Amino acid sequence: MYLTTVTKPTNADPVRGRVAGNVVALGAVSLITDISSEMVAAILPVFLFLNLHLSPAAFGAIDGLYTGATALLRLVGGYVADRTQQRKLVAGIGYGLSALMKPALLLAGRSAAAIGAVIAIDRAGKGLRTAPRDALITLSSAPESLGRAFGVHRAMDSTGAFLGPLLAMAVLALTAESFDAVFITSFCIAMFGVLVLVLFVRDHRDPLEDAPRVEFSQVRGMIASPAILRLLIASCILGLVTIGDGFVYLVLQGREDLGIAWFPLLSVGTMAVYMLLAVPLGALGDKIGLRTVMMGGYVALGLVYLLLVSPIHGIPSLVLAVILYGIFYAATNGVLIALAGPVIPAHLRTTGIALIQTGQALAYLVSSIAFGVAWGLWGPVAACKVSAGAVALAIAASLFLLRRTTEGLAA
Fold first, then answer.
1. Burial label, 108 (beta-carbon count in 10 A; 0-12, 13-18, 19+)
2. One pLDDT digit (tens) per residue for the chain, 411 residues
3. Helix, strand, coil fractions of the chain, as percent rounded to 5
4. 115 Cβ contact list (under 8 Å, min separation 6)
5. Is the dihedral of CA 56, 394, 309, 357 positive or negative?
6. d(CA 123, CA 129)
7. d(CA 348, CA 53)
8. Alpha-carbon distance 259 to 126, whole Å?
9. What is the DSSP string of 378-395?
10. Residue partners of 380: CB distance under 8 A and separation at least 6
11. In the chain, N or C terminus with fewer CB closer than 10 Å?
């Protein structure tokens, strides 16, 4: 039974509480890559919604595509990485593909369809790389320190997300608000991240003659495992109540009448909180239970949605919303994968992680489109109220689903 299959990696750091060097190297790659990607992500909502005047539904489709498009290649990348045991190579292809799409935004011009196509390819690259990268983290770490390992990685990742918008603001200020300059700078930084991956990240694979052969029948059997099936359903439910950064920041910008020049600072504030709390909350999850910390994060998300419809305006309300949003990310990003790692067989680790991430990505795509439609029909206030109620239901359902999955693990 897959629930009892807990594999301690051969290259894990043998000292309890320490983080393997490979995790730090992967974190460095993510830090650099996130500087690149968040430079673009920070200006994209303003460019699409306020500059190109897209409707809320159209913006929701593109915003959902930004994450949902990763679903198409997550399972393919995960299966190929497990089948060939070339996790680093598959991840590298994904990083490279995303990097090449940054200058492609120059060719897209003001066409929403072309921008959507470039984003889809960029996110497909993310889909290829995410599961192999996270599998390498789990295979490089001892099971009892997975929360800390993912916390360190996500803290480094969020440092890049913190610096990216600031760099985008600096480039815009120095180039008379040239979006093209942002895209070119982003491309150069992304290619540097690929170089760091090639030089410093170690792959994790057994000799092919000793490794279990990965077959589709094994994947079907893994999905049928009750523990993994519950994790998959929970990931979909939680993805359905996550409306996305773009909408959250646009509602905050409209509520407080922020100037466009200040818009990227909303992302900066969120990532600053995420960066500071990712490691402490990951370590806390190892002690009190990863599930408990993750559900606390979704409580914070629900409070963010309530603040978006609160009659109280002003800087304190805005700052509180940004802090809570950062807590949500720090308490949830990577935690579900840390929960899944020990219950997935080592030779299927990448495929299993990709399966759960695919569920979340597809659910997020549906959520973003639905929220955009709801905004267009009812307005942002009513849409946020519905989202807050949905979060409460999702927390209750996930607590029930994950209760038995986490028995005997870290909860």
1. middle
2. 333 333 444 444 444 457 778 899 999 999 999 999 888 887 777 777 666 677 777 767 776 666 665 666 677 777 777 777 788 998 899 999 989 988 887 787 667 678 778 887 887 888 788 878 888 888 888 777 777 888 888 889 888 888 988 898 888 888 877 778 888 999 999 999 999 999 998 887 655 445 555 566 666 677 777 878 888 898 899 989 998 787 888 888 878 777 766 777 888 888 889 888 888 888 888 888 888 999 999 999 999 999 998 888 888 888 999 999 999 998 987 777 777 777 777 777 777 777 787 788 788 878 888 888 888 889 888 999 999 999 999 999 999 888 755 444 433
3. 80, 0, 20
4. 48, 62, 105, 108
5. negative
6. 10
7. 45
8. 31
9. H-HHHHHHHHHHHHHHHH
10. 247, 251, 254, 308
11. N
What domains can be seen in the chain, in order of their start residue? 21-203+215-405 (1.20.1250.20)
Q: Which amino acid is at 219?
A: V
Q: Please state, in angstroms and rounded to a whole number, the distance separating the CA atoms of residues 124 and 73.
A: 6
Distance CA 253, CA 262 (A): 9
Tokens representing 328 are: 């949500």
* Beta carbons of 327 and 277 less than 8 angstroms apart: yes
The pair of structure tokens assigned to 294 is 């993750």
SS3 219: helix
Single-letter residue type at 361: A
Pair 82, 354: CB distance under 8 Å: no
Answer whether 364's CB lies under 8 Å from 64's CB.
yes
Calpha distance 89→285 (Å, rounded): 31
The token duo for 345 is 């067989």
Residues 6+ positions from 156 with CB-CB distance below 8 Å: 24, 27, 28, 30, 31
Give the integer Cα–Cα distance in Å for 143 and 140: 10
Tokens of 262: 């200040």
- The tokens for 249 are 């920041």
